[in-house]
Amino acid sequence: MLVDTHCHLDASEFDGDRDAVIARARDAGVTRQILPGTHADEWPLLRDACRLDPGLHAAYGMHPTFLEHHAPEHLDLLGEWVRRERPLAIGECGLDYYVEGLDLDAQQRYFDGHLELARETGLPLIVHARRAVDAVVRSIRRFGNVRGVVHSFAGSEEQARQLHQLGFLIGIGGPVTYERAKRMHRVVAAVPLDQLLLETDAPDQPDSGHRGQRNEPARLTRVCDAVAQLRGMSPGALAEATTRNACRLFNLPQ
């Protein structure tokens, strides 16, 4: 059985067939999915989506590329939601240095707020770090006593090593199935097995066999197969190990 540790099943792309998508995931062995939030206006919809199936679990956060939806008071509101709803994690949060025109200082302030909340509550963080892994590492070190996952990891082996020392796992998704993703292949083959999580980031980041199409959680099996091949192990053993990692980080039942 597999855990999709990063999936936006509450997105509008699934409004027409969400129940069928959940059923296909279950049939493929993807029995649990973690749905990270992106901004405060969306949290109620996310909560409602997670009520559709006991295998869906919410996280609440403020994505760095949704700055136009954020306000400073939303950090206080986030604390209220986390304490009332008791999610498995805080996020999606972090830093994005790829998208042009985003206010870097505002991103950092919001990320610091999530780090502080994670330190207070003990909940893991789901972190977005596009072209910003070093800055994320510095922020984590500055706060300390936090843990989590850097999702859709595209950094180096050294960056992965630093994150592992800080108690952070890395999420691997559809990009690992692409032939040209050589650096990612090296990282996936080299990092400790207990640092790996699998994800789809659906509806985004489809595997190489579905490029240009809507992604969905059932396709996590393709990610699992690719990672297992890179590590020279069976897909079943890889699924067991990464599910164990997800259960440990997010306090899911084994």
UniProtKB/TrEMBL annotation:
Annotated binding of a divalent metal cation 2, by residue: 128, 151
Amino acids binding a divalent metal cation 1: 6, 8, 92, 201
The keyword Membrane appears for this protein: no
InterPro entries assigned: DNase_TatD-rel_CS, Metal_Hydrolase, TatD-like, TatD/YcfH-like
One GO molecular-function entry: hydrolase activity, acting on ester bonds
Presence of the UniProt keyword Transport in the record: no
Gene Ontology, cellular component aspect: cytosol
Keywords annotated in UniProt: Hydrolase, Metal-binding
Domain of life: Bacteria
Family per record: Belongs to the metallo-dependent hydrolases superfamily. TatD-type hydrolase family.
Protein name: TatD family deoxyribonuclease
Organism: Luteimonas yindakuii
Highest classification ranks of the organism: Bacteria, Pseudomonadati, Pseudomonadota, Gammaproteobacteria, Lysobacterales
